[in-house]
Amino acid sequence: MLYVRGDRRAGGFRIRTGHGERWRLKMRCRRPATLTLSAAVLLVAALQLGGCDSHGGQLTQAADPEWQMQRERMVSEQIEARGVKDPLVLEGMRSVERHLFVPETSRDSAYIDSPLPIGDSQTISQPYIVALMSELLEVGPGDRVLEIGTGSGYQAAVLAAMGVEVFSIEIRPRLCERASETLAKLNYTTARVRCGDGYGGWPDEAPFNGIIVTAAPEWVPDPLLEQLAVGANMVIPVGDFYQELKVITRTADAFEERSVIPVRFVPMTGEVERQGDP
Ligand SMILES: C[S@@+](CC[C@H](N)C(=O)[O-])C[C@H]1O[C@@H](n2cnc3c(N)ncnc32)[C@H](O)[C@@H]1O
């Protein structure tokens, strides 16, 4: 919901969204009073077309056409070209401003076909891998997904843009705090971040319609399997040096597992490492 109010003293408009942000737009015009109504109507239309989605996603000022173009190219050349088809995933990847999730020094590389460093020796995954894992989850609006490894918050934002409610856990306090701030600033209100070891999952919110793990354990932690709803998928890289991206589906009485592609993720740390190879 957007509230728009003409502000003659400031020579423009004050805008408030249902999510609590306040914007002020100044206009250079000599007769603000006579323009107020028509300009406000145009403004509401522009904002609704331009950036505020219904899943608690970003409210952007008119998207920067250069970044927008880079995102379009990323989606068509790196993601669709490799076979990702889910329209919800493709739209999520088009809408989330990846350059706002990487350090300023890497912004120019934000849309290249590669993972990038995000500090603390960790990485934001390659865009294709983010899209592929999102598609393999097979989730949609209203579903609840647990993510282990928030990192920059980008994967969580993509899922939130798809209408998913995200519960994300990050073990490194600095990354955790930064990701929470970024997601809040960009208004991804359906993505919640918790700081700590994701080994035990988020039992209070279980079961989940999907679980995505973005750091590689050598074996799949039992608590995560237990928190997967019947019929849901867990997408998880498993292995040490050699890793496989796996999809584990919970059926009524078993877990079915398939390998998708070889991958290279940072290792899952914490309890899973302490327990070692079972
Ligand atoms: C490849 S990065 C994740 C990228 C992230 N999904 C993104 O969109 O930026 C892997 C993350 O998993 C985190 N991690 C590793 N072990 C973890 C654990 N046991 N619990 C929670 N997070 C963990 C790392 O600190 C790192 O930030």
Bound molecules: S-adenosylmethionine
Q: How many individual domains?
A: 1
Class computed from helices, strands and strand pairing: alpha/beta
Query: Outline, from the CA principal axes?
Result: globular
Mean pLDDT: 84
What is the multimeric organization of the chains shown?
A: single chain
CATH architecture: 3-Layer(aba) Sandwich
The helicity comes to: 25-40%
How far apart the termini lie comes to 52 Å
Please give a structural write-up.
- 31% of the residues lie in helices and 27% in strands.
- With 278 residues, it is an alpha/beta fold.
- It has one domain: Rossmann fold, CATH 3.40.50.150.
- α2 runs antiparallel to α3.
- It starts with a strand and ends with a helix.
- Mean pLDDT is 84; it is low at 1-56.
- Bound molecules: S-adenosylmethionine.
Topology:
Elements: E1 2-7, E2 12-17, E3 22-26, H1 32-50, H2 65-79, H3 87-95, E4 116-119, E5 122-124, H4 127-137, E6 144-148, H5 154-161, E7 165-170, H6 173-185, E8 191-195, E9 208-213, H7 222-226, E10 228-239, E11 243-250, E12 255-263, H8 271-275
Parallel strand pairs: 6-7, 6-9, 7-8, 9-10
Antiparallel strand pairs: 1-2, 2-3, 4-5, 10-11, 11-12
S-adenosylmethionine binds next to strand 5, helix 5 and strand 7.
